[in-house]
From TrEMBL, chain A:
GO terms for molecular function: phenylacetyl-CoA 1,2-epoxidase activity. This is Ring-1,2-phenylacetyl-CoA epoxidase subunit PaaA. It comes from the Bacteria. It comes from Kribbella antiqua. Pfam families: PaaA_PaaC. One of its GO terms (cellular component) is cytosol. GO terms for biological process: phenylacetate catabolic process.
Automatic annotation (TrEMBL), chain B:
InterPro entries: PaaB, PaaB_sf. It comes from Kribbella pittospori. Pfam families: PaaB. This is 1,2-phenylacetyl-CoA epoxidase subunit B. It comes from the Bacteria.
């Protein structure tokens, strides 16, 4: 019979799942809390660049779709905060860490959405990259995180398709519409490649996360997968991926591509992206503006509970 | 003030049991049900929802899982595969 850490390692070695009340190394717990929290923060901050276009969507159909998509992202954030809480932290504390800048979210959401085509590019590229990152997480060794990812992945495919459809429509429209789509691809391509994190040679947490079954593929593997998947889709749109070094390698069956400028990634993560301050300020304001709702709901619940107690006595 | 945590169970369709789908925070049971609808059934994933305060659940302890489930370990005769069926006997 195995107890404590022996049981943990045996479960990991057998590719089993760790559940909330199992014994686990402190490092495993901390790594998961950090990763799940930052993933949750990314989902809710990610509502902002798209929310920016809800009131300006070009048709009622597009507006309804965009609202549903942004609502899904709120849902993804909630699944993930709930998964993080099974590790013994409070959602309220995680939000404090986000609001005070001590926990990060994906750097991609610090770029602005300048045109309607950006909404297409986000669905196609950003949700596309998120899918490549998230599919392997459905097999993560931590049960609640893996289960949340299964739900998320089911919902993401609609996100990617609606984005592609927006661009496809623009690409088959007027020359100005097509140029708008190309401009969006030009601006979102490199930040999307950065979504997979630093190159393997510079990645700090990867090895331990792989050993623990939290991470299943390296950053560079996932980035390659994304490029291989996306380039043929750009061809269908008739758009040009803004990489002069891009070419198909017959021998390996993979595309060769130029690495993004990682100094930009580090810089945006540090807080110097075009929208970092705006995103965080908006998040904090939304949270503070909602305080009276939480207080009123709690007061109502308290009153109802005391009435029930009164009538039972 | 921290809103209590609720565990959410959804019956995906008639004929199936409620299954645990996740948790959420809400000040009371009514709000917990409404939030559960919005968070866990945006695509008609359910025909019925239960919410239970997480604090009201009593669970077996993972530390003693071996001893706790031991009694069933040596009772293989509870399974039909334990028994030898003579050649030629059908519908048994
Ligand atoms: Fe999402
Ligand atoms: Fe998404």
């Amino acid at each position: 019979m195995l107890a404590g850490m022996d049981s943990f390692q045996a479960t990991i070695d057998a590719d089993g799942r760790i559940e909330p009340r199992d014994a686990m190394p402190e490092g495993y717990r901390k790594t998961l809390i950090r990763q799940i929290a930052q993933h949750a923060h990314s989902e809710i901050i990610g509502m902002q660049p798209e929310g920016n276009w809800i009131s300006r969507a070009p048709s009622l159909r597009r507006k309804a779709i965009l609202m549903a998509k942004v609502q899904d992202e709120a849902g993804h954030g909630l699944y993930l905060y709930a998964a993080a809480e099974t590790l013994g932290v409070d959602r309220a504390d995680l939000l404090d860490l986000l609001h005070s800048g001590r926990q990060k979210y994906s750097s991609i959401f610090n770029y602005p959405t300048l045109t309607w085509a950006d909404i297409g590019a986000i669905g196609w590229l950003v949700d596309g990259a998120a899918i490549v990152n998230q599919v392997p997480l459905c097999r993560c060794s931590y049960g609640p995180y893996a289960r949340a990812m299964v739900r998320v992945c089911k919902e993401e495919s609609f996100h990617q398709r609606q984005g592609f459809e927006i661009l496809h429509t623009l690409c088959n429209g007027t020359p100005a519409q097509k140029a708008m789509a190309q401009d969006a691809l030009d601006r979102w391509w490199w930040p999307s490649l950065m979504m997979f994190g630093p190159p393997d040679s510079a990645s700090t947490h990867s090895e331990q996360s792989m050993a623990w079954g939290i991470k299943r593929h390296s950053n560079d593997e996932l980035r390659q997968r994304f490029v291989d998947m996306t380039v043929p889709q750009a061809d269908v749109l008739g758009l040009k991926v803004p990489d002069e070094g891009l070419s198909y390698d017959e021998e390996t069956g993979h595309y060769r591509f130029t690495e993004p400028d990682y100094t930009e990634l580090y810089d945006v993560v540090k807080g110097n992206g075009p929208c970092n301050q705006q995103r965080l300020a908006h998040r904090v304001k939304a949270h503070e503006d909602g305080a009276w709702v939480r207080e009123a709901a709690a007061a109502y619940a308290g009153k109802q509970a005391s009435r029930r107690e009164g009538s039972a006595a | 003030m921290i809103e209590p945590l609720w565990e959410v169970f959804v019956r995906s369709r008639r004929g199936l049991s409620h299954t645990h789908v996740g948790s959420l925070h809400a000040p009371d049971a009514t709000m917990a049900l409404r939030n559960a609808r919005d968070v866990y059934t945006r695509r008609q994933e359910g025909v019925s929802i239960w919410v239970v305060r997480a604090a009201d659940i009593t669970a077996s302890s993972p530390d003693e899982k071996d001893e706790f489930f031991d009694p069933a370990g040596d009772k293989v005769y509870r399974h039909p595969t334990f028994y030898q069926v003579p050649e030629g006997v059908e519908h048994l």
